[in-house]
Specification:
Elements (H helix, E strand, L loop, with lengths): L1 E6 L5 H10 L5 E8 L5 H9 L3 E3 L2 H6 L2 H8 L4 E4 L8 H6 L4 E5 L13 H10 L4 E8 L9 E8 L6 H25 L2
Parallel strand pairs: 1-2, 1-4, 2-3, 4-5
Antiparallel strand pairs: 5-6, 6-7
Length: 189
């Protein structure tokens, strides 16, 4: 059985889609959801899906080895960032080399880096007059959005599209592709 841990800071819609994708499977299990935000919507979703939640604070994340230790003790095979807003510390990256992935709501290397998440990305795409956007699934390293790219999918940015319009298109790509790519990474199918 392959075991996944999801890290999320927000609503948890991608985390929920991932959990639903693997529900009832005997070869892959979403074992834990980690969050740094005690008000995150992902908590309610995790409870509904009966996935245990691990809370942590900034000090624990950056100045202790507690998080990598929990992941290793639980036999986690893949760490999945799904709307997680903190830069991953080197100790965690080193504990899971090429076993930690992220999804970014743009076509990297454009519109990545510190502060480029969610609505900020979609606003930048529209303001730049881009004709396409999309998603990038990539391995995590010590820098925001700079790990090796695993998969990208594109969507049109039509004239007159607002950042909210782009967000809807990008979310559809996230929900369609992130669970599938995770499955391929874990099972080779």
């Amino acid at each position: 059985m392959k075991r996944i841990a999801i890290f999320a800071s927000g609503s948890g819609s991608n985390a929920e889609k991932i959990c639903e994708h693997f529900a009832g499977r005997d070869d892959v299990d979403v074992s834990l959801i980690f969050t740094n935000n005690p008000m995150a919507g992902v908590i309610k979703r995790a409870l509904k899906l009966q996935v245990p939640v691990v809370f942590f604070d900034r000090k624990t994340f950056y100045h202790t080895g507690k998080i990598p230790q929990i992941l290793q003790n639980e036999g986690i095979d893949l760490v999945v960032l799904a709307g997680f807003m903190m830069l991953v510390p080197p100790v965690l990256v080193e504990a899971f080399p090429n076993k930690m992935i992220n999804i970014h709501p743009a076509l990297l290397p454009k519109y990545g880096g510190k502060g480029m998440y969610g609505h900020f990305v979609h606003e930048a795409v529209v303001n730049a007059g881009e004709t396409e956007s999309g998603i990038t699934i990539h391995y995590v390293n010590e820098h925001y959005d700079e790990g090796d790219i695993i998969f990208q999918a594109k969507c049109e940015v039509a004239p007159g599209d607002t950042p909210d319009d782009v967000a809807r298109k990008v979310h559809a790509l996230e929900y369609a592709h992130y669970p599938r790519v995770i499955d391929e990474i874990l099972t080779g199918r």
